[in-house]
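Pipeline run #58 for the internal structure catalog. This entry was flagged by the ingest filter as a single-chain record with no existing model, so it goes straight to prediction. Upstream metadata was stripped on purpose; only the residue string is passed forward. Reviewer on rotation: M.T. Logging verbosity set to normal.
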Amino acid sequence: MAEGFAEQFSGVPYVGALQANQSIDDDFCFLKVGADVQGRVGSLNLLTGVHPQACTVIGYPDGLASPVQATVQAAWYTSGHQLKFTCDGYPKGTSGSPWIINGNEAYGLIGGYQQGGATPSVSYSPCFGVNVRNLYNTANEAFL
């Protein structure tokens, strides 16, 4: 299964987290589809256990025709749980945007605390740790 980041898919089976009364540290999901999505649009490799560092964040804000992109310096918001970066221009609609390093590896996404951020200038991500790797493995083993 290819790692990937997807939003707003309806009627597609997925393995996810962050249901009622669950932790903001589990604000992510994985989608497994039968089609070769990776071959058509590409994918990112999943990194877990990575400390905050400079990364590129690409988002698709509501109401804009093109994506926003910036290289930002991530830092801990809550050590071992939530990451954050400060950069103006990531408004509503950018939730789920991957935090990319080395051109093809993701170690975070806009989400978690304040559903990713209450203002366009500060964004958050749950830390991709053992919980993310375990959920990925569960999704990878799922039958379609």
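catalog note: The chain has a mean pLDDT of 80.
catalog note: The radius of gyration is 14 Å.
status: ready for reviewer M.T.
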